[in-house]
Specification:
Length: 382
């Protein structure tokens, strides 16, 4: 963290202490019972974490995206489910409102979102539309002064918690020149015709709240349109670019958590009369893990600094997510190997990281999508 200023170092230390003292002790039981602790979410709100990259005039902390990444990385070390709750709450819940909402929408929705009193989801992915969001089938048609929404979404984070206020959904609102017109609409939880289905039984991120959503003639006011009509496709792309930086920060935290646990275990584990850490093969494994953490952190810091400086960052965000996601998965695998049989027991954090980290190569754009973004930046059309 050599490139952090004093304020950023203080934030990192504060969230790291919170992660170790509050988040880590409850992580195993939360994972085992598939339960998101609303007490932990509330304490994150009290610390101001949900408001980090937003201006004070809307109830935020007046920080930037690197501040958010610092907090997410610190949480990701010990509990990816809690880290993704913060990441999605900011990047996918509050940020679309801040970036594209009307002043009335901001004043109504942002204060509670930025204080952690409310959460929101971002309904993009569908059974037939993931990275290819242009394949969206959910529709929203105007009927008088209301949008009528039909369709379904899947894998939607923070969509069914006790404090979830609404979801923002992408929907086809018409066509222009033979192409779908995609817009985004705010749908409050509890809207008749909007059903939050039962939570998923997932491989990892078990304490993260994730549901499929169904819309069957759900009606919301015409004023619930978020951003200009037809701008949904362009707007969600910019949201995903920012989100990739945050996922890269989470991935870096996960990679570091695996490294820290593996180093401690290797020093304490005796094998054939000496500590495992004295064996060169273990040393080399741990050294590679350290190099991955360092490289991943440099990548997401660079992308975040570009974003905060108002410079183009889409390619760098893709690189950061690619590098950091692979670092998390590789370090989880290597840490599990260092732990041996204990690494296969869910009570050990490395086992949870092993299950959790795979989604980091999939969510908010798969590895293949990141490679495509990078290839296009090289001028390789296809």
């Amino acid at each position: 963290m050599e490139d952090l200023n004093d304020e950023e170092r203080e934030l990192a230390a504060m969230v790291r202490d919170f992660a170790d003292s509050v988040v880590a002790p409850q992580s195993y039981e939360a994972d085992r019972t598939h339960t998101l602790s609303m007490d932990v979410v509330g304490q994150m709100g009290d610390l101001g974490l949900f408001g980090l990259p937003f201006p004070e005039e809307h109830g935020g902390q007046g920080g930037d995206y690197i501040a958010l990444g610092i907090a997410i990385e610190a949480l990701g070390r010990v509990d990816q489910s809690i880290a993704i709750t913060l990441e999605a709450g900011v990047s996918l819940g509050a940020m679309p409102v801040f970036r594209f909402g009307t002043e009335e929408q901001k004043q109504e929705l942002l204060p509670d979102l930025l204080a952690g009193r409310a959460l929101a989801g971002f309904g993009l992915t569908e059974p037939e539309a993931g990275s290819d969001a242009g394949a969206t089938r959910t529709t929203a048609r105007l009927d008088g002064d209301e949008w009528v929404i039909d369709g379904s979404k899947q894998f939607i984070t923070n969509s069914g918690t006790p404090i979830t206020r609404f979801v923002t959904v992408t929907a086809v609102t018409g066509s222009e020149g033979g192409r779908k017109e995609i817009s985004t609409v705010i749908v409050p939880n509890g809207t008749p015709g909007f059903t939050v289905e039962a939570p998923y039984d997932k491989v990892g991120w078990n304490a993260s709240d994730t549901h499929p959503l169904t819309f069957d003639g759900a009606r919301v006011p015409a004023g619930n349109l978020l951003g200009a009509r037809g701008s949904g496709f362009r707007n969600f792309l910019s949201i995903l670019d920012e989100g990739r930086i945050a996922i890269a920060a989470l991935s870096t935290g996960a990679a570091e958590g695996c490294l820290e646990a593996a180093v401690d275990y290797a020093k304490s584990r005796t094998i054939f009369g000496s500590a495992l850490s004295t064996r060169q093969n273990a040393q080399f494994t741990l050294a590679r893990m350290r190099a991955r953490v360092h490289t991943a952190r440099l990548a997401w810091h660079h992308a975040a600094r570009l974003r905060d400086g108002g410079r183009p960052f889409a390619e760098q965000a893709a690189i950061a997510k690619l590098v950091a996601g692979e670092a998390a998965m590789d370090n989880a695998r290597d840490a599990t190997q260092i732990f041996g049989g204990n690494g296969f027991m869910n009570e050990f954090p490395v086992a949870r990281h092993y299950r959790d980290s795979k989604i980091l190569e999939i969510g908010e754009g798969t590895t293949e999508v990141q490679l495509l973004v990078i290839a296009r930046a090289l001028g390789l059309a296809g």
